[in-house]
Design brief:
The structure holds two protein chains of two kinds. By secondary structure, chain A is an alpha/beta fold. Helices cover 56% and strands 11% of the residues of chain A. A five-stranded parallel beta sheet of chain A has the order 2-1-3-4-5, sandwiched between helices. By secondary structure, chain B is of the alpha/beta class. Chain B has helices at 3-11, 27-32, 37-42, 44-58, 71-76, 116-131, 144-152, 154-163, 165-189, 206-226, 243-247, 262-269, 281-286, 290-304, 322-333, and strands spanning 62-64, 80-81, 89-90, 136-142, 193-197, 230-234, 253-256, 274-279, 308-312. Chain B is globular, with a radius of gyration of 19 Å. Classes of the chains: A alpha/beta, B alpha/beta. Bound molecules: cobalamin.
Chain lengths: 213, 337
């Protein structure tokens, strides 16, 4: 029987080969896919987030862990879908129009996925219409926007307003982030939440859709 | 003293009539003459006019060719997206070195080959002609981590440090050689100082910085100094983990961005390193009051001691009130060095 702590370790150390192999073995041995996520991967990404906050990990290590987690998730996701296991929530993510910074947004996506969300990542330079179209398509109730430039922060408000213009404002919650964004700014533009970093983005996302953290 | 004399004297440790001021202006400079940023990055005559006008309005001691990080990579053949009124950028999905093996066949572009590098060199020459005796002229090149990111894609490069250290070294070798040729051409055209931008270096953490980035930054800086130019190092973002190493690079000026406290820079780099910065460009320079700017520059100066140049942590943002930028001069005027 595989020692599943290896999965935890592989995600923390960013070893995508091992994380995938251990996951494949565990699934073949009949381990519940959801248990792999809840008992090993989420705690591992929590640990990674903590190391980042304590300056033990920097961006390269985070991206490495995110890759290891994704490698395992690729095997797990189809099984969850086949069993009709619902993700804890669906979230549409993107960097707003005019802004091409995506490292932070990618990390938030990875942590959300590690936290049990289904994430639809629209990439960078995302126009309001694209957010709207994706929400319509997926039925996501949560939209996450990232901006790293003061000049593109107003695009967050424009996006929220565009949802209102389509009569969709009440169907979704908006969370915003990125280095220059603050709680005060989030309040000013009528966003539902702000988080300072990727680990706290997961806590925020869960709160916004009413799931206990 | 004119700006050029002032900065050179200050760097040499000689007396000056006031502290030099060297804030980075790019989009802000374009706005001063009412041109779209795309014209600033594609036509050296526009860039030069905007820089001269900005230096005149705010009595800034230098002018610079800096505009965007995409000059070298564009001439290498990378796909660059241009925008009407903001800096051009790369499309990571189409990175030039999406395959690591492509590096072997990549040729160093000729800086004078008629591309975006040449346009920068022409800016340097035009500055020399117009204000060569009055203002310090700054050339600009990218550091290993920044240019490596531009060619490879920044997200991917971060993984390469673990996946393929040999590739990293080969890539950085390529970058160093290209940047030194670019520096040579700008120096020949008349620049006094070369600015080196290595923004992505602030993301990597202490181990990767020491092992992979510092040695190449060092070679680049030694190479530029051997050509007889001064060197200014600019790493945007939080460099607290790298300050000690940055102090050992032998730069004439080290910039500190707002997340890197000036007193820490001083403590880690010793008393002689000239430090520049580190007003928060957004919360202080753009959104603060004149008094905020004066107080904050005073604090930076106090923490840095006499080996200090007035400036912001990074580019002066668009929309900064002119009186806030003028406050830098106002402060500097009160200080003889
Ligand atoms: C890397 C970088 C670039 C790269 C981007 C590559 C890429 N693929 O992302 C390149 C070179 C392309 C670039 C270009 C530019 N950049 Co830049 N860049 C940076 C840099 C060095 C790092 C940003 C980063 O990735 N940080 C690391 C990540 C992990 O942090 P983060 O993004 O903040 O994300 C965390 C949190 O904010 C949060 N979060 C992020 N998104 C979200 C979303 C949600 C919903 C939530 C809840 C949380 C959340 O969680 C993340 C993880 O913990 C910063 C300086 C710095 N060190 O901060 C400048 C910086 C952001 N850039 C800046 C500028 C000005 C530019 C340019 C205009 C420069 C120019 N003149 O050419 C262009 C603009 C291009 C464009 N149109 O977007 C300025 C912005 C100033 C401002 N506030 O307006 C900065 C701050 C540099 C500076 N000091 O001036 N840049």
């Amino acid at each position: 029987m595989t020692d599943l702590r290896q999965l935890f370790d592989a995600v923390v150390t960013g070893d995508h080969v091992t994380s995938k192999a251990v996951t494949a073995e565990a699934l073949a041995a009949g381990v519940e896919p959801l248990a792999l996520v809840n008992d090993y991967m989420i705690p591992a990404m929590d640990d990674v987030g903590g190391k980042f906050e304590r300056n033990e990990y920097f961006v390269p290590e985070l991206l490495l862990s995110a890759r290891a987690m994704k490698a395992a998730m690729e095997l797990i996701r189809p099984l969850l879908a086949a069993r009709g296991t619902q993700p804890i929530g669906r979230v549409v993510m993107g960097t707003v129009k005019g802004d091409l910074h995506d490292i932070g947004k990618n990390l938030v996506c990875a942590m959300l996925e590690g936290g049990g969300f289904e994430v639809f990542d629209l990439g960078v330079n995302v126009a309001p219409e694209k957010f709207i179209a994706k929400v319509r398509e997926t039925g996501a109730r949560l939209v996450g926007m990232s901006a790293l430039l003061t000049t593109t922060m107003p695009a967050m408000k424009l996006t929220i307003d565009a949802f209102a213009g389509e009569g969709l404002r009440d169907q979704v919650k908006f969370m915003v982030g990125g280095a220059p964004v603050t709680q005060r700014f989030a309040d000013t533009i009528g966003a539902d939440g702000y988080a300072e970093n990727a680990p706290s983005a997961v806590v925020l996302a869960k709160r916004l859709i009413g799931v206990a953290a | 003293m004119n700006g050029r004399e002032r900065i050179l004297a200050h760097l040499a440790g000689a007396p000056v009539d006031r502290l030099p001021i060297m804030p980075i202006t790019m989009q802000y400079a374009a706005d001063q003459i009412g041109v779209k940023y795309i014209d600033y990055v594609t036509d050296h005559r526009v860039l030069v006019e905007a820089q001269l006008r900005t230096a005149e309005i705010f009595d800034i001691d230098y002018v610079s060719v800096i505009s965007d990080p995409a000059r070298e990579a564009a001439d290498c053949g990378a796909k660059v997206e241009f925008f009407d009124d903001q800096p051009p950028a790369f499309i990571e999905d189409h990175a030039l070195l999406a395959e690591r093996t492509s590096l072997a066949s990549l040729k160093i572009p000729d800086p004078l080959g008629g591309g975006r590098m040449l346009d920068r060199i022409q800016a340097a020459a035009l500055f020399k002609e117009k204000v060569g005796k009055d203002k310090l002229i700054e050339g600009w090149i990218e550091g290993p981590c920044a240019e490596g990111s531009d060619l490879r894609g920044i997200n991917t490069l971060m993984l390469d440090f673990f996946d393929d250290p040999v590739f990293i070294r080969d890539l950085f070798e390529f970058v160093i050689e290209m940047e030194l040729r670019f520096a040579r051409a700008q120096i020949d055209a008349g620049v006094d100082i070369i600015g080196i931008g290595d923004a992505a270096a602030s993301l990597v953490g202490p181990q990767i910085y020491e092992e992979f980035v510092w040695p190449y930054e060092k070679r680049l800086i030694d190479g530029v100094k051997a050509m007889g130019a001064k060197v200014r190092l600019h790493i945007c973002g939080n460099t607290r983990f790298a300050l000690e190493g940055m102090g050992r690079l032998g730069c004439d000026i080290v910039d500190l961005d707002f997340p890197s406290p000036v007193h820490e820079g001083r403590a880690k780099m010793g008393p002689d390193q000239v430090l520049l910065g580190n007003l928060n460009p957004v919360t202080i320079l753009m959104d603060g009051t004149v008094q905020d700017v004066l107080d904050k520059v005073a604090q930076c100066h106090n923490e840095a001691g006499p080996r200090f140049i007035v400036g912001a942590g990074c580019e002066v943002p668009r929309g900064t009130p002119p009186e806030n930028l003028k406050a830098m001069l106002e402060y500097a005027k009160g200080v003889k060095g």
